[in-house]
Amino acid sequence: MYNYHEEKENLLDFLTEEYTLFKRQQDLYGKYLEMAIPLSDCVGEMTRHAGSYTAIRMMQVASERAGVDEGFQLNDDDNQFVVEMHNSLVDFVSDTVIPDTDDALNNFADPDQLVSILDDLFQNALQTALKPFQSDDEAQAE
Questions:
Q1: How many CB atoms neighbour CB 86 within 10 A?
Q2: What is the C-alpha to C-alpha distance for residues 111 and 117, in angstroms, rounded to an integer?
Q3: 94-117 pLDDT, tens per residue?
């Protein structure tokens, strides 16, 4: 079972550190290329990492549920966890990253495009991290 409040706090701490790393990368690009990284690059990297983080955490919880020597299956709690983590990511990007980004670096056509990219990248990262642990039946269902 997930403690959503604690899980969200952990993800937000993780995203804050990810964003700090991105700002450091931004400084390096500015120093060596005299060019800033666009917002889409930041959002893309953070989203991929958030999806992987979510998948790894789900595997930890599912493994604890199943026991040490048994396989595990994801359930409705895991699905809800994915929704909560995705929503936390969207909130972090909307409340922290975008307001902190120079408008000139915002290369999204509109907010719907941003959300669509967040959705796609998060889902892709989640599925990529979980793929090795899926049964053949689950993999074919995709």
A1: 20
A2: 10
A3: 999 999 998 889 998 888 899 999
